[in-house]
Amino acid sequence: MALAACNSSSERVELTPNPPTPPVADGTAELRIHHTSANAPAVNVLANGDVLAGLENVDYQKSSPLLEVPEATYSVQVDGILPGGDVTTVIEGDFDLEDGVRYDIFALGNLGADAPFEFGPFIITNSVSPVASGEARLQVLHGAPVDVPVDVYLTAPDADIAEGGADFTLSYQDFTDQVSVPEGDYQVTLTVAGEASSVLFTSPTLSLPAGADLMVVATLNTAANSDDAPIALLIADGEGSSVVYSTTTGADIRVVHAIGDAPAVDVYANEIAGDPVVANLAFPGATDYLNVPADDYEFLVTVTGETDAVLSQEFSLVDGLQASVFAAGELGEETANLQAVVLDNRRVATEARLRLIHASPFAGPVDIYVTATADISDAEPAFAGVPFNAEELVTTGNVALAEGTYFVTITLAGETDAALGPLEVDLSTSGIYTAVAVGNTADNLGVILLDDLAPTEM
Q1: Rounded distance, CA 299 to CA 314, Å?
Q2: For 338, what's the count of Cα atoms within 13 Å in the CB-facing half-sphere?
């Protein structure tokens, strides 16, 4: 099985069956690993000291394929990947894998001494068996580490859940049996147990074909609108996995004014009428994240108080998306445009996440240093020759660093004189730190600080 549309604002998620696979050979078991701990780093999974195929650098809300392994006792070890590539063992133990049994092993809970739900392994076993003809099969686990029991409804799309009772009630770590249903279109709804009006999750239409064999896990939503849409479903299909967000999630968008020679601007959605979505945003300013319904939009930018668009761009915003929309380039030049940069904002208990974005057309290609001291004379750049791209802003992505004090210095490519910095930053684990290089002339060259680097108001 494979999800044909995931992380999508589509009203329908299509699942398409893979070609039939032969039954499990005698003397073998099935093994699958799921990373469902929201603040844990990516992991490697080892058996008897060797990394299992397909189980290297497994990140949050990912499931492995179903692996066929000989029945035996295995020493299974899960290593969290630390900054710099070091690892620490977070789960280890001996597991007896028996003939004809499917083992789903979940990394559940949260890391940290104060975490209310301890991080560790959780195992579900089932006998290996075929899915009945004309049916789909699914099993549901409450894997979100919160003390909130949920009611699970599996209904026809857009059915009124108030007209019938819940199919299951699950507390954290509770799971259903494997449940077979006729092939067809369904909707999954999760509510607070006993409170049908307190909806936590509403899926798009899920099209389940005959032969679908799914593990469905309620996990914490670490993407957009996590306060109002706290749950996302991890769906594992035997070959991989996908994440399905609630139709109430929407997209989180923030706007960054990164054009150094441009006046303050207003930003409108779809038409220049009424109040702007963002008003009077001046360089080098940025908004907080704004949640908007998943849909297709045209963002239009005007000089504040005027009605003629100076920039416009169409964006397709999907449920679960978190993006920063930059007005970047040089005003009056073809390089000026709106660009969306998508960054992973999940916080990890074992690392600080630093990311840098090159939005200065004046600087050209640059070298970026991240060092323990302000002196870069003997240092190698962490990122060399990073260009300014007028069509797609270049970002380092999340750089995992150990907690501590660092200096960020940006030079013109191949040079050692600082064009920006050194910027001293104190990084803490679980932190997210974003710096944007901006400026259209030498006089306004600078850095926009976002997320945990943003200055706090006194």
Answers
A1: 6
A2: 24
Amino acid at 140: V
Q: Residue 2 has what pLDDT?
A: 27
Range(s) for CATH 2.60.40 in the chain? 24-129, 138-248, 250-342, 346-458
Tell me the C-alpha distance between 360 and 396, whole Å. 15
Q: Looking at the domain covering 24-129, what would its CATH class be?
A: mainly beta
> pLDDT at residue 419 above 60?
yes
Tokens of 81: 């990947």
Please tell me the predicted confidence (pLDDT) of residue 458.
40
| One CATH from 1.25.40, 3.30.420, 2.60.40, 1.20.950 for 250-342 | 2.60.40
Mean pLDDT of 51-58: 86
Tally of CB atoms within 10 A around 367: 22
* Mean pLDDT score, 260-264: 91
Instruction: Supply the pLDDT for residue 261.
Output: 87
- The per-residue pLDDT for 24 is 64
Q: Are the C-beta atoms of residues 327 and 265 closer than 8 Å to each other?
A: yes
The 10s digit of each residue's pLDDT in 380-395 is 999 999 999 988 999 9
Q: Strand ranges (DSSP E) for 237-392?
A: 241-245, 251-257, 265-269, 278-281, 290-292, 295-303, 309-317, 322-328, 337-342, 352-358, 366-371, 383-386
Residue 145 has pLDDT above 70, yes or no: yes
Architecture of domain 346-458: Sandwich (2.60)
User: For residue 173, which of 118, 128, 228 has the smallest C-alpha distance?
Assistant: 118
* 3-state DSSP assignment of residue 443: helix
In the three-class reduction of DSSP (H, G, I as helix; E, B as strand; rest coil), residue 375 is classed as coil
Tokens of 273: 């009428």
Dihedral of CA 216/217/223/226: which sign?
A: positive
CATH topology of domain 138-248: Immunoglobulin-like (2.60.40)
Q: Is beta strand 251-257 parallel, antiparallel or unpaired with respect to 322-328?
A: parallel
Looking at the DSSP bridge assignments, the partners of residue 206 are 13, 186
Task: Quote the pLDDT of residue 386.
Answer: 94
User: What is the rounded distance in angstroms from the CA atom of residue 420 to the CA atom of residue 404?
Assistant: 21
Interval 333-348 mean pLDDT: 89
- In this structure, what are the phi and psi dihedrals at residue 238, rounded to the nearest 5 degrees? 100, -25
Q: Specify which residues 241 forms β-bridges with.
A: 236
Beta strands 168-170 and 150-155 are antiparallel
Report the C-alpha gap between 213 and 231 in whole angstroms: 22
